[in-house]
Every structure is written in C-alpha cells, then in structure tokens.
Amino acid sequence: MAKPRRRQAGEGGISEYMTKAGPRFLIKFTAQRADGTKRVVLKRGFKTRRDAAAALRAEVRKAEMGEWVEPSKQRLDAYLAEWIQGQRLSPATLASYRKNIRLHVDPYLGAQPVARLTGPSVDAWMRMLEESGRADGQGGLSARTVRYVFTILRSALGDAVKQGRLSVNPTDRSTPPSPSEARPPEMQAWTAAELGRFLRWAQARDADLAMGWRLLAATGMRRGEALALRWRDVDLDAGRLQVRRSLGVVKAKGAGEQLVEGSTKTGQARVVDIDADTVGSLRAYRAARGRLALDLVRDAALVLGNLEGTHRHPERYSRRFVEQVVQARRALGEDQLPRIRLHDLRHTHATLLLAAGEPVKVVSERLGHASATITLTVYQHVHPGMGRQAADRFAALLRG
User: Fold this and answer.
1) Is the Cβ–Cβ distance between 234 and 353 less than 8 Å?
2) Which of 9-13, 260-264, 318-322 has the highest mean pLDDT?
3) What are φ and ψ of residue 243, in 5° steps?
C-alpha cells in the first residue's frame, strides 16, 4: 500500500489519534485572522482519512480566498443581546423580538457558542418548542410561533455571517415549519346583512363604541391605525381620511408596557375615501364629543380616544369588541351573528368589496397592503360562488 503523499507547506496536515470509539483523524492548517495575524487551526473528530482530507481541502481553500472565519467563542445569548441593540425596527417589533428571544431562544440555545450552532441543533430546538415550548408549561408552541421565532434567529445569524463572525448560517441547514403549516387562523367575515345588524345593535347599546366598529368596518383600517387617527387626519367635507400612523403596545420585562405611536405597517401613509353614511355618523359623533369637552374635538385630538383624550389600549379595545359580539349574539340570536374578532372587521371590509366586484388594486390600496399580490393571496378564497359567477358571465358572453 502506497504511503500518503507528503503535504507541502501551506497545505496543512492530517494526523491519526486513538479514542475509545476507535481511530479518529484531525486536520491542521494555518489561517489568517481579520487583523492580519496568523493562527494554527486544529479540527478533530473525523472518522476516516478521506473525510479529513476533504475537510482540509475546503478549509485551506477558504483560507487562500480570504473567506476563513475564526470561530467565535461568544455565547449566543450575549450575541443576540448585542445584535438586538443595533436593529432599526419599530418599538413594538423590538419588544416582540426581545420577548421571544428571552422566552424561546435563550433558555435553550443561549449558553452555546455562536460558532458551535449547527443545522441539526437548530432543528432539535424547534422540535422542542413545538412539544413543550410554552412559557406557562402547558404544552408546545404553534407552528406559526415557532416559524416566527426561527426567523428572528435566522436574521440574527445572517448578520453574524455578514460581520465575519460565522462562515455559514446554521439555519440555512435546518427545516422550520413550512408556510402552509404556519398559516394564520382562518379568517372570518360577516355578510353585509350581519354587519348592518350588529352596527344597528351597537349604536343603540353604546354609540361611542359603535363609532369605532363602524369606522373599522367602513375603511378596512388596522386596529392600531384607527386608534392613532386624529381629527386633523379626517376631512369630513371631502369624505376621506389619511392613515398616517399606528398605535402599538410595547412590553418590556420589568418595565411594564407603553402605548407608542409609530408608522403604519408598510411605513407608508394612505388616503381612504369614506361613504356618506359613515361621514354622517362621524359628524354626529364629533358633535356629541364636543358637547362633553372641546378638547376632544380639536385637530390634534384622537378620533377614537377615551373621554380623557388619551389612547385606548389596543388589546382592551379588541376585548370590548368580543364582549359586544357575545352580547349581540344573545340579543339577536346566535344564528343571526357569527362570532368574529375585531381584526375580522378588516376582513369583512375587503371580502364585501371583492365580492361586489371592486377591483383588487382599489381594495389593496384601501387596506394599505404593500402590493395587490398580497391582497390576492390573502383573499383568494373569498366567496366560493364567485367562480360560478365568472363561469356564468363567460357563457353569457359566448351567447352574445
């Protein structure tokens, strides 16, 4: 048997050593650090000389191309704490990232050096979250939540690659829940008759809250956008309003929570036309609030603020809606009014317009979607009967 060729200077070397499990091989090569100094690198644990030789060739090639990255000894939790400080995100998104890192990443992977993370270890972490990841100990996280936490880690480690702390992103070699597995809860929408039934009941019950429900249903605004709307954004004579900002809840461990105004979800303002009935309701609502206090109807005042003129809490506002739906179902009959969430008023707005034949682009602009493609994707299932209507229209065209 021929002896292995003696390696030349700069090619590195391979050595055999013994373990309890049998012989193993290590590789040794010289690489240059970012500061220009050189270090000798050892990597152990290869089961065969062939595996060691392949790994050595790859490492030497990276060293020659200037792509070799010195393994970082920094722990993942320390890196993530540093990483999050440099992110240009909205306060609400930053708070969400911090919370998910604290609850779902640090307890499982935080103690590991960044350089020791692997695709299989990331996969094992995600499976653990799915089985027993809830902070209250009551089971696992949904596929949607696991995928969200995974995207945070993926983004953080992607930046580590850009900064030269990692040579590859280990999440590229892992398998998170698929988009289909992480689908959001099925949306619900009222028919026009159901919406009208509820709004009439709500107006008789609590005109103040009813104005908010009508405004959301008539414009398709997101909850935070409606709660940040000010009278200077509303032109009742022209019958339109401008959506310029959004209200969010920022929660920080040990610091409670804050209500913070920021940009809209897409970062873009938009103009939304409003119907004559809603304009009339807004006029009556503003007059009623003005009789309570002039400060409630000044240009800078919040349209849907509380009677002290401050923001309503978004999450409590959603709960009030759910409570009113429950009460309305009791009063009107459960078969007359399906149970929906506050956000489903937005879905109801879009569904009714699309079903009535309104162009997708117009609906997309009213909703503030980044593109009409998003609208098509979200509402592709709207009213199954629409396909039949399209087929009948085509047949009518052929008949002349």
Assistant:
1) no
2) 318-322
3) -95, 110
Residue 391 CB contacts under 8 Å (≥ 6 apart), including other chains: none
At residue 6, φ and ψ (nearest 5 deg) are -70, 130
Q: Where are the alpha helices (DSSP H) in 163-206?
A: 192-205
Q: Which helix (H) or strand (E) segment is 271 a member of? A: strand 270-273
| Pick from 57-66, 77-86, 133-142, 211-220: least confident | 57-66
Structure tokens given for 154 = 């993926």
Exposure string over 174-211, b if 16+ CB within 10 A, otherwise e: bebbeeeebeeeebebbeeebbebbbebbeeeeeebbb
Beta bridge partners, 24, equal: 17
CB-CB contact of 76 with 234 (8 Å): no
Question: Who contacts 399 (Cβ-Cβ below 8 Å, separation ≥6)?
Answer: none
134 SS3 class: coil
CA distance 206 to 208: 5
Q: Which long-range contacts link 34-38 to residues 24+ away (Cβ below 8 Å)?
A: 34/70, 34/164
